[in-house]
């Protein structure tokens, strides 16, 4: 496995692979990897001749009061996990390599980025779109794999790729969970033992909402009220948002939704802001 730290070297390596007809699969990460990331790398390994994973904690997607400095990092552990997952190259640039002196350009996807996490973290998705576009230009992948846990991120990147005519296929990998249902996240390390014990209420609540819709519930407000009521039972949790949005552009749901929608939540447990979601298929009625 090779470690590349410069944009020029990364682009040269990618050009050599593409020149020889080798398909490149790409998994962008901020490091401190867990089984969720590894599952995306394995998915890329199944489809690609060469797999690249980036490890880059992107300052542009952190707000002024967020945890950039404290964001967990462990490069040696990350390298071992990448190698075990069959990654061929780790792209690990410095901040100065990605955003050199005088850097000014930012990409925004206003409508898709505005609701949900975008309402709480207005700087976030502009940073995500910008760094993903830059990473795509560095790695030149045939496809890139993103986890469905960060569903809004997946939709932002998909829209950005379509709008800018980037020759990259976006592939969604399923959410990977702990045995008790908690979605894996690098920020789970922030949870205290008591918070960790309560946090699976998020997934249980989403599953209950899915069952309600599968049983024939067609009212938006009934579904949202159920979720808010259940999450209120977490004594250590503080709800950031509970929302229902149309897929793929995340417009607000109608009073009586039809078709595929995203039920999305964000809940603070102490220092950790946990997000999760469930895709709901509302019956199409006459």
Per CATH, the superfamily of the largest domain is: HUPs
Work out the strand percent. 15-25%
Gyration radius, in Å:
19 Å
For the biggest β-sheet, the strand order reads 1-4-3-2-5-6
Q: Portion of residues in helices? A: 25-40%
| CATH architecture assignment of the largest domain | 3-Layer(aba) Sandwich
What is the number of helices? 11
Order of helices and strands: EHEHEHEHHHHEHEHHHEEE
What structural class do helix, strand and pairing data support? alpha/beta
How many individual domains?
A: 2
Low-confidence stretches: none
Total strands: the figure is: 9
Approximate shape: globular
* Distance between the amino and carboxyl termini: 56 Å
Describe the structure.
This protein has 286 residues and is α/β, with parallel strands linked by helices. It folds into 2 domains: 172 residues, 3-Layer(aba) Sandwich (Rossmann fold); 94 residues, Pantoate-beta-alanine ligase, C-terminal domain (Pantoate--beta-alanine Ligase, Chain: A,domain 2). It contains 11 helices and 9 strands. It has a 6-stranded parallel sheet with strand order 1-4-3-2-5-6, sandwiched between helices. α8 links the parallel β5 and β6. α7 crosses α8. The longest helix has 16 residues. The protein is globular. The protein starts with a strand and ends with a strand. 39% of the residues are buried. The mean pLDDT is 96.
């Amino acid at each position: 496995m090779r470690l590349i730290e410069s944009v020029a070297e990364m682009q040269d390596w990618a050009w050599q692979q593409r020149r020889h007809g080798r398909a490149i699969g790409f998994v962008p990460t901020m490091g401190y990897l867990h089984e969720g990331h590894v599952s995306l790398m394995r998915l890329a390994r199944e489809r690609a001749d060469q797999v690249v994973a980036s490890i880059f904690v992107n300052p542009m997607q952190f707000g002024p009061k967020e945890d950039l400095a404290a964001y967990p990092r462990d490069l040696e552990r990350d390298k071992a996990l990448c190698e075990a997952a069959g990654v061929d190259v780790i792209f690990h640039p410095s901040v100065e390599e990605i955003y050199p002196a005088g850097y000014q350009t930012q990409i925004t996807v206003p409508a898709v980025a505005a609701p949900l996490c975008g309402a709480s973290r207005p700087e976030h998705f502009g940073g995500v779109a910008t760094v993903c576009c830059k990473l795509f230009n560095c790695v030149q992948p045939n496809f890139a794999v993103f986890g469905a846990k960060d569903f809004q991120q997946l939709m932002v990147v998909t829209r950005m790729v379509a709008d800018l005519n980037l020759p990259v296929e976006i592939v969604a990998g399923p959410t990977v969970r702990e045995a008790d249902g908690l979605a894996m996240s690098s920020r789970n390390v922030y949870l205290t033992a008591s918070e960790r014990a309560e946090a699976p209420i998020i997934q249980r609540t989403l599953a209950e909402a899915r069952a309600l819709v599968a049983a024939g519930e067609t009212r938006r407000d009934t579904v949202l009220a159920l979720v808010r009521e259940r999450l209120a039972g977490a004594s250590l949790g503080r709800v950031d948002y509970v929302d229902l949005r149309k897929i793929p552009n995340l417009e607000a749901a109608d009073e009586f939704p039809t078709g595929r929608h995203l039920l999305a939540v964000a809940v603070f447990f102490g220092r950790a802001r946990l997000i999760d979601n469930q895709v709901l298929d509302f019956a199409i009625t006459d």
